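Section 5: illustrative case.
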């Protein structure tokens, strides 16, 4: 893979709040070329605080796990209208049962003040699309 588009080699860009454009190019490259992330990249993506719905969805696809937070990421990606690959892949990576469980956890069982900054951002974006 080209270092130019590597999450691992561009950790600062991925994590920096004001690098939406650059981060999005790198994330889209991974999605478009079906690149699987490594352990280091997984750690970087888990730490990434991004509020742009398309980037949230791509991160969900790249992480590809069934955690409650990632299920919300995938649900956000599934609603994307401009990136067909993202919306289809996101929708295929979670079930309605997973979504109900994540929704219940974040909106009924957990208090807002107990959430991390990343969880708050993802919950806000999810709420805008689903409520």
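Designed sequence:
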């Amino acid at each position: 893979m080209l270092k130019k588009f590597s999450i691992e080699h561009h950790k600062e860009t991925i994590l920096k709040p004001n690098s939406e454009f650059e981060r999005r190019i790198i994330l889209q490259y991974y999605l478009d070329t079906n690149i699987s992330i490594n352990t280091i990249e997984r750690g970087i993506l888990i730490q990434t605080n991004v509020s742009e719905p398309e980037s949230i969805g791509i991160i969900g696809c790249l992480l590809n796990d069934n955690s409650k937070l990632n299920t919300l990421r995938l649900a956000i990606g599934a609603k994307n209208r401009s990136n067909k690959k993202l919306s289809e892949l996101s929708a295929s990576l979670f079930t309605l049962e997973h979504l109900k469980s994540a929704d219940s956890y974040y909106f009924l069982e957990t208090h807002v003040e107990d959430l991390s900054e990343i969880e708050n951002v993802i919950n806000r974006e999810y709420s805008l699309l689903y409520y």
